[in-house]
Specification:
about 500 residues, alpha/beta, Aldehyde Dehydrogenase, Chain A, domain 1, Aldehyde Dehydrogenase, Chain A, domain 2, 2 domains, 7-stranded mixed β-sheet, 20 strands, globular
């Protein structure tokens, strides 16, 4: 399969959609152009799938559902472990593909790719241990419960972590016995197609993993498809509202991981060196393009100047350039639109009176990358709570630093706005940090660290950051429905209309 990945690494390759265990010719000649963000040049195209294409992929998922869902969990587990092995065997090539499409540095992608098979192995393992219950209840009855998969499900995935976020969803959905139709972001749709082909190589039955590519209309058609029984979305909050509306019309369940504006609280007793290093990672890994990027630093007055000095110095030292160069620490943004948003918010922060302490210098890029979607990592201090930069998600490497004087004020600042996904708190007093964690709004809180993820650590947000959970038993059960079977064990029989027996 490495040869297939290398084929996709060549510019201009368009093998169509993937469903039914093979690449398929779409019902349209319309395509979406995929750019290399490091150069802003066209890299390849993918089909802009039609309603007919969506229907074909969903039909394929339905055809495979019976056989896949009826497998014993042990047999499904073996399939998923084989899939994990295939991913490990193709790890370096997948990292190259991800870097080409997203602009993420190859150093980052190699590190991230090494963790991804763990999600398949984890869910393959815990699904074996999913057991129902039985209870003896009043009146001579036994209730027996067991779990059933839902059917074909829709996975809508983003461009910032095309394989990682997809596998997080896919592993739980498949382990539960569902079949999947994946609609990746039109900005980074290539690696999900390859991943589906790898699943087939690993021995998963045809039609269990299917991928359609396209824009918003394709996604809407998938969400509205009659035979889709669950929608799992990672994306922006505005997209989440639209998908929730479509799901609500059909009364199907959803999980949504949406936007964020992650606060980082740094107390006066924090280890400054550790806090600077950790928050640098929080702010600028993936060029600041994650939903839990450390976006607003809330720093106690007693250490404010020291922290500002440290974060400014370290930010200016970040190496920007060719994402394929192993010495590059930060690559480009995903698109010109993202770059323009960052530049506009930088300009507005200056108008608002915030002080830029890092990011003003030239990029000094090699000519090959002059037109790429690069922006220097940028830090503003003295940002106030009513400033746009404090309130609005940037989704890029532009962060704010704001002073606080008490824990109460820090919590109020952290809870300002409508998001509630990630939070991190830095303090040597772990009891204090834990008390703060109970008062801040967020689905994931790190103490003296940031952005750590594991298949066993439940992940999800509240309010405008979405609902439902990824990872852990919560994610597996979300892809299942629990059925109750009631068995009469009492002797004889009831005849209500002859006055024999009881009601209820």
């Amino acid at each position: 399969m490495t040869s297939l990945i290398h084929e996709f690494l060549k510019p201009g390759i368009n093998k169509g959609l993937f469903y039914g265990g093979r690449f398929q010719k779409p019902h349209t000649s319309a395509v979406i152009e995929v750019l290399n963000p490091a150069t802003a040049e066209a890299f390849t195209t993918v089909p802009n799938a039609t309603v007919s294409d969506v229907k074909a992929a969903v039909t394929s998922a339905r055809s495979a559902f019976g056989g896949w869902s009826e497998l014993d969990p042990l047999d499904r587990s073996r399939h998923l472990h084989a899939f994990a092995h295939v991913l490990r065997s193709n790890m370096s090539s997948l990292a190259l593909l991800e870097t080409t499409i997203t602009g993420r540095s190859i150093r980052e992608m190699n590190a991230q790719m090494a963790r991804i098979p763990e999600w398949l192995e984890y869910f393959a393992s815990i699904a074996i241990g999913l057991e129902g219950e039985s209870n003896v209840v009043k009146g001579g009855y036994v209730t027996v419960t067991h779990y059933e998969p839902l059917g074909p499900v829709a996975l809508l995935t983003p461009w910032n972590h095309p394989i990682l976020i997809l596998v997080k969803k896919l592993a739980a959905a498949l382990a539960a016995g569902n079949t999947c139709v994946i609609k990746p972001s039109e900005l980074a749709p290539v690696s999900p197609l390859v991943l589906a082909a790898l699943a087939t190589e690993a021995g998963l039955p045809d039609g269990v993993v299917n991928v359609i590519t396209g824009g918003p209309a394709t996604g809407a058609a998938l969400c509205a498809a009659d035979d889709i029984h669950y929608i799992d979305l990672t994306g922006g909050t505005s997209t989440g509202r639209k998908v929730a509306s479509l799901a609500g019309e059909r009364l199907i369940r959803t999980t949504m991981e949406l936007g964020g504006k992650t606060p980082v609280i740094i107390c006066e007793d924090a280890d400054i060196e550790a806090a600077v290093a950790g928050t640098l990672f929080a702010a600028f890994v993936a060029s600041g393009q994650t939903c839990v990027s450390g976006a607003r630093f809330l720093v106690h007055d007693k250490i404010y100047d020291s922290f500002v000095e440290g974060i400014a110095e370290r930010t200016e030292q970040i190496t920007i350039g060719d994402p394929m160069d192993k010495t590059t620490q930060m690559g480009p943004l995903i698109s010109q639109k993202s770059k323009d948003r960052c530049l506009r918010m930088i300009a507005q922060a200056k108008v608002d009176g915030a002080k830029m302490i890092a990011g003003a210098g030239p990029l000094n890029l090699h000519n090959d990358f002059y037109n790429g979607f690069y922006i220097r990592p940028t830090v503003f201090k003295d940002v106030e709570t009513h400033h746009e930069l404090f309130l609005e998600e940037v989704f890029g490497p532009v962060v704010s630093v704001t002073r606080f004087y008490s824990d109460h004020e820090a919590v109020e600042m952290a809870n300002t706005g409508t998001f509630g996904l990630g939070v991190s708190i830095w303090s040597r007093d772990i009891a204090r940090a834990h008390r703060l964690s109970l008062k801040v709004r967020g689905g994931v809180v790190w103490l003296n660290d940031h952005h750590r993820n594991d298949p066993r650590s439940v992940w999800g947000g509240v309010r405008d950051s979405g609902f439902g959970k990824e990872n852990g038993w919560d994610a597996l059960r979300a892809y299942l429905t629990k059925k109750s079977v009631i068995v009469r064990t009492a002797a004889g029989h009831d005849d209500w209309f002859k006055g024999v027996g009881r009601y209820g």
